[in-house]
């Protein structure tokens, strides 16, 4: 199967039929990172009542520069619905306190002079409505609080809690399985012989998925044996997404594609004209989406970040699935071999992107992943970039708007 372009791969990924996710209820205290399964509409205005933005005195604007009698006090949480500001009077009110009827301005304590017999005098001018937060100025009844498909962040959870919501309806989490592949792979903690390699990829993949709120189950190392692979592929269909690394390059010992085909899987593509990571494969088996990554750690992690995560976002029910690049100045020009898409790693600091070691590193590099924080995707027709560049941070932001993430 010939390698396809990155844009073709993106189109194929976006066409994958989403699994039908169940819906469960979760306590608002335990819902962080979940995907909301229904819209939440404002039923309690924000703020819920006119209140004071300062510790001060609520009064009528016409009484400024006059002696005004203090006629009560309102603390945060007090019910002031039966109180009213009369001409020549004021009420002391604390920040967040409900404002009595007739309040036209709140004057901070530091802007008044205390007079004898419980009077004050305002010592500077104020405009009407100063230091007043009005009912519904942030959200009114009927406004959209949160949208189906939103990922629940700490800020959004707080906004939902402002409506008195105790439990939220969220999609069941995708079941994600992660494998490594190859007879040369052993697990951390075991004693490695000279020809053996510790399992870097599975650990890194699971950690990166967790950074985006996904939980994956590690199911071990797939051995290069057709009979063993056949049995393990039967397990794949218990999961919504399966991510493997290794066993997808063109070679005599790479049995994985053959095993998938023998099990009835449809190979969507095997190879993208990209560096690093040309040997990536996408297959669909029943309701399971299977991504097979190259064994080189750098290839695996860059492909997970740039190609696989947007697909996982879509399948999870999220409404923001498109990577959102940030724009940077190049610290130094980049020269590249054209004819393929190049993914270049570097660091983003104070608005500048610096390519790691000038691009002099291989796809088998390990330390580069840790020492960088961003990826630039360079179009196949580009051999040099001089100034501005679009980059994707390792932990990137997603949007409901399609962005062109390729520098062309």
TrEMBL record:
Class of this enzyme: transferase
Protein name in UniProt: Molybdopterin molybdenumtransferase
SMART domains: MoCF_biosynth (SM00852)
A Pfam entry, by short name: MoeA_N
Keywords for the protein's UniProt record, in alphabetical order: Magnesium, Metal-binding, Molybdenum, Molybdenum cofactor biosynthesis, Transferase
Domain MoaB/Mog: 177-314
Organism: Helicobacter cappadocius
Catalytic activity: adenylyl-molybdopterin + molybdate = Mo-molybdopterin + AMP + H(+)
Enzyme Commission code(s) on record: 2.10.1.1
Stretches assigned to coiled coil: none
SUPFAM superfamilies given in the database record: MoeA C-terminal domain-like, MoeA N-terminal region -like, Molybdenum cofactor biosynthesis proteins
Job of this protein: Catalyzes the insertion of molybdate into adenylated molybdopterin with the concomitant release of AMP.
Superkingdom of this protein's organism: Bacteria
Listed GO CC annotations: cytosol
PANTHER family linked to this entry: GEPHYRIN (PTHR10192:SF5), MOLYBDOPTERIN BIOSYNTHESIS PROTEIN (PTHR10192)
Family under the similarity heading: Belongs to the MoeA family.
Cofactor(s) listed in the protein's UniProt record: Mg(2+)
Magnesium listed as a keyword: yes
Gene Ontology biological process terms from the UniProt entry: Mo-molybdopterin cofactor biosynthetic process
Pathway in which this enzyme or protein is active: Cofactor biosynthesis; molybdopterin biosynthesis
GO molecular function: metal ion binding; molybdopterin molybdotransferase activity
């Amino acid at each position: 199967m010939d390698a396809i372009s990155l844009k073709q791969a993106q189109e194929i990924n976006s066409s994958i039929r989403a699994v039908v996710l169940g819906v469960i209820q979760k306590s608002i205290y335990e819902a962080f990172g979940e995907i909301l399964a229904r819209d939440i509409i404002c039923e309690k205005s924000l703020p819920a009542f006119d209140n004071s933005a300062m510790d001060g005195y609520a009064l009528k604007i016409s009484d400024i520069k006059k002696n005004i009698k203090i006629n009560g006090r309102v603390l945060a949480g007090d019910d002031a619905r039966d109180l009213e500001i009369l001409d020549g009077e004021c009420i002391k009110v604390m920040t967040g306190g409900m404002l009595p009827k007739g309040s036209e301005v709140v004057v901070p304590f530091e802007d008044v002079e205390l007079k004898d017999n419980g009077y004050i005098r305002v010592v500077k001018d104020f405009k009407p409505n100063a230091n007043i937060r009005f009912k519904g100025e942030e959200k009114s009844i009927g406004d959209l609080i949160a949208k189906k498909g939103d990922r629940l962040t700490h800020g959004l959870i707080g906004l939902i809690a402002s409506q008195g919501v105790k439990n939220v309806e969220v999609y069941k989490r995708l079941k994600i399985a992660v494998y490594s592949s190859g007879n040369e792979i052993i697990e951390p903690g075991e004693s490695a012989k000279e020809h053996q390699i510790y399992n870097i990829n599975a650990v890194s993949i699971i950690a990166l998925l967790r950074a985006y709120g996904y939980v994956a189950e590690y199911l071990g190392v797939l051995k290069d044996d057709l009979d063993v692979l056949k049995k393990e592929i039967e397990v794949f269909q218990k999961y919504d997404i399966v991510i493997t690394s290794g066993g997808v390059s063109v070679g005599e010992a790479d049995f994985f594609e053959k095993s998938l085909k023998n099990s009835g899987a449809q190979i969507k593509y095997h190879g993208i004209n990209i560096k690093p990571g040309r040997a990536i494969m996408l297959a669909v088996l029943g309701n399971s989406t299977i991504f097979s990554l190259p064994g080189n750690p750098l290839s695996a992690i860059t492909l997970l970040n740039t190609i696989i995560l947007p697909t996982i976002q879509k399948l999870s029910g999220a409404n923001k699935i498109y990577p959102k690049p940030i724009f940077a100045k190049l610290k130094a020009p980049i020269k590249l071999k054209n004819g393929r898409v190049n993914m270049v790693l570097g660091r983003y600091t104070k608005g500048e992107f610096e390519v790691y070691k000038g691009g002099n590193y291989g796809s088998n590099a390990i330390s580069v992943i840790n020492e960088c924080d961003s990826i630039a995707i360079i179009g196949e027709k580009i051999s040099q970039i001089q100034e501005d560049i679009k980059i994707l941070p390792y932990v990137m932001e997603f949007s409901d708007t399609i962005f062109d993430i390729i520098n062309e």
